[in-house]
Amino acid sequence: MPVLLLLLFSFALSIGLGIVVWALRRARHRLSVPKRKAPFILQAPGERSCSFRRPACWLAIKSNSLGAVQSALGLHNPKPCSWIEGLAGDEKLFVAPPVTGWILVMGTGLPDPTEDADTCFRFVLRLSRKLGQVQLFCASRVLHHHAWVKANGGKILRAYAWAGKTLWQQGPPTSAEKDLAMKCFDYTDSPEPISFGQPDPIAQNVDKVPHLAACWSLDPGHIDQRFLVREHGVAGEPSGRY
Known about the structure:
The chain is globular, with a radius of gyration of 25 Å. The chain has 7 helices and 11 strands. It has 2 domains: 1-35; 49-237, no CATH class. By secondary structure, it is an alpha+beta fold. The strands form 2 sheets. Strands 3-11-4-5-2-6-7-8-9 form a 9-stranded antiparallel beta sheet, with helices on both faces. Strands 1-10 form a two-stranded antiparallel ribbon. A hairpin with a 3-residue loop joins strand 8 (155-162) and strand 9 (166-170). It has helices at 2-32, 66-73, 83-87, 117-131, 175-179, 201-216, 225-230, and strands spanning 49-50, 57-62, 76-82, 93-95, 102-106, 134-139, 146-152, 155-162, 166-170, 223-224, 232-237.
């Protein structure tokens, strides 16, 4: 009987050691494989998409004229710029070539409504007087600051900007915002404390900004790869203060 018990103990110990070794090998393998970040893209049937890191702030302008947008921005030191170079984020302003009737503008030279709503208001209004339909979107996944602005014919139709509090609230919410269940606070409102396990409406707004852009105009996270390869835009510097 003692011998039998010893054999059973040895057998169980062997199985346990085998499981431990297998688990360690699995963990080591997972650590050795680099993790890939999920691309920020919206799938659309019939299109070949090419994903890239979506900018934190961008303009969408209803136009097919690269020259008209460049002139309205008063771009200084303009130079030809490929999509790949422009999307790298090193340029002050990158005016992308038209995509389905919209021109995207991105870069560190754009005014951020979550930092200075008044400057952004004047900037979008001035562009809209010259170009018509102008939209601006901002979404920071780190700070959860976000904003969206829609203008046409020199008038702000809708604007909302949040940076710890509501900085800009103008015009009625659009049908797209309602369909996406985006939460907007009034100037005097404060978000209620979030219970454990409940979704954060502020973070959800940030995630929904690209979807709103797709409803209003164009999501820069989903561009047909043919445009990225064949077309070129223009890069430059903003003209002084907005």
